[in-house]
């Protein structure tokens, strides 16, 4: 067995023998996400490197501690990318491959291209017994039965240490354009719903307000002819490609001005996942949101004390709400009140608990990171 992998397995077996809880950590860029992490740190830094890359097969395999920057640079050299645009927090390119899968977060293009889990073909996992397990493969046809490799996406380290993953990648689109439109939140949602029913190369969208003026940005990606035809059909103001790329990158990494504005002391950042067709949500005096995913993801700034209001509005629209992180001005209140994740239905909660018991029978890994009542 690889020395780094053997070391991880030995640490887990020792922790099980001594009942020492563990928290799995790559480089810690997503420690804010989920309930506050607990336990002795188990680092994946030694599990680094791209172990297999076949550009012609559109498949890459990388170890969990591989920096995202390294993986994305290797893909870019071959004109390929991770189309779901995993968010990176902190310095550009920060984060690791294992953290990307464990957090299960996707960027601006998610509504058009799919989520992280849709690109996971296979994975190697070290479970709570110290056993090294393999799931899936390197091609889609190997996926059969209960797809454990995709269950790992968003599991936040509660099932074990993700040691290695195989991912489907795609070529970079030959053409891209960004169009800008002024209008209210109602206008933006109406337009996005209309465009969603047409054969347009929609890739990402973002609406937010600045000084009371609403602005919708729409990114098109695809064949040159399709992108140019869509631009001519939709109108709007065409944004310079370099400026647009910087803006989408800032949105992906939550460095967009809406996220960084220091205008909500004591507030938390809330992420609401709702149907794209959901109307403007009734949230009283909560400020205007930033809207992505063609209406499906809506960000709000509101104190944790308003959790009931936020979650009731999300439920009424057919979605759910996550307390994504505390804003810098209120970081000291990180432990305040509201659970980070919305309550699960009883059947789904039973499945979560059953999976955790199966993969981690000794309860070593930080289950409460994902389930506050674990």
Structure explained in plain terms:
With 374 residues, this protein is of the alpha+beta class. It folds into 3 domains: 3-172 and 358-369, Uridine Diphospho-n-acetylenolpyruvylglucosamine Reductase, domain 3; 174-251, 2-Layer Sandwich (Alpha-Beta Plaits); 262-341. The chain is 28% helix and 25% strand. The chain has helices at residues 3-18, 68-77, 97-103, 110-113, 148-151, 185-196, 224-234, 241-252, 257-260, 307-316, 346-359, and strands at 22-25, 40-43, 50-54, 59-63, 80-81, 120-126, 132-136, 161-168, 170-171, 175-182, 202-210, 213-222, 237-239, 268-273, 290-292, 297-302, 320-326. It has an 8-stranded antiparallel beta sheet with strand order 13-10-12-11-15-16-14-17. It has a 5-stranded antiparallel beta sheet with strand order 3-4-8-6-7. A two-stranded parallel sheet has the order 1-2. A hairpin with a 4-residue loop joins strand 3 (50-54) and strand 4. It is globular, with a radius of gyration of 21 Å. The two termini are 33 Å apart.
Gap between N and C termini, in Å?
33 Å
Backbone structural class: alpha+beta
CATH architecture assignment of the largest domain: 2-Layer Sandwich
Helix count, DSSP H or I runs of 4 or more residues = 11
Helix content: 25-40%
What oligomeric state is this?
single chain
| Mean pLDDT metric | 91
Strand order of the largest sheet: 13-10-12-11-15-16-14-17
Query: Tell me about the biggest sheet?
Result: 8 strands, antiparallel
Beta-strand fraction estimate? 25-35%
Secondary-structure element pattern, one letter each: HEEEEHEHHEEHEEEHEEHEHHEEEHEH
Q: Using only CA atoms, what is the Rg?
A: 21 Å
Shape: globular
